[in-house]
Amino acid sequence: MCADDSRAAVALAVPFLIRIATDPDHRHRAAALGGLAAPARARHFGVASRDEFLLHRSGPQHEMRNGYDDYGVEVTGYPAGWSVAAARAAITAAAPLLLPLLGDSDPAMRIDASYALATAADPGHTVRGVFAARFAEEKDPVALAALVLTTAEITRGHPHRPATAWLRELWQDRAQVPEVRLAAAIGWLCLTDEPAPDTLRTTVDALATDERARAMDALPWMAAVGGNEPGLLRCVRRMLHPEAPEPYSDDPWAPQP
């Protein structure tokens, strides 16, 4: 299989999933939407550090060394980033079809739509503008957090100072639900090199309870972090408390401190 074949295979698979996900009468639409973003991401499982979480590694700012990018290679022997780029291109082209899913009656569908659309190219900030409009209407706390994280991820791919400033305002805003403030704090940390303010640390430590962290594992970003703890807690530990050891697990296959 040549490189063009590899990219073509992904480009064909993703539009097929999009057709299923956007068909309101298809019985597998939720599963298709849930799996849609996987080809558009690579080597993100377990990633919870401030420099790598929400990062689109196959962007033009990441130089390919010896013909290979930092995603590694596929079983075909070709750079995995080529397939990732093809999947993202397909999602970008289908954004007009996917954006209405942000208003689906099922919160899980809205969350998965946010996760997929976060991988779209958005140099003109059009998609991000829809996220902002939807944020003003959304009522579900976890779906709101999804809109915050997807805004942060798409902003990491296409920097936009107003979006970064908005995230900072959100984690400081006591009127926002805790899920939003936590997502905004994590998103803001990933978009800036500034030291974490003491107010952010105290806010996150107070709001990131075990119960809330388990609830926020409904967010695909957090579920993908994995490890021996809920994704939110792993992000908090890696970003704000890197000196803290890995939590102990009874799982013999899990990494132990």
UniProtKB/TrEMBL annotation:
InterPro entries linked: ARM-like, ARM-type_fold
Xref: SUPFAM superfamilies: ARM repeat
Highest taxon above the source species: Bacteria
The name this protein goes by in its record: HEAT repeat domain-containing protein
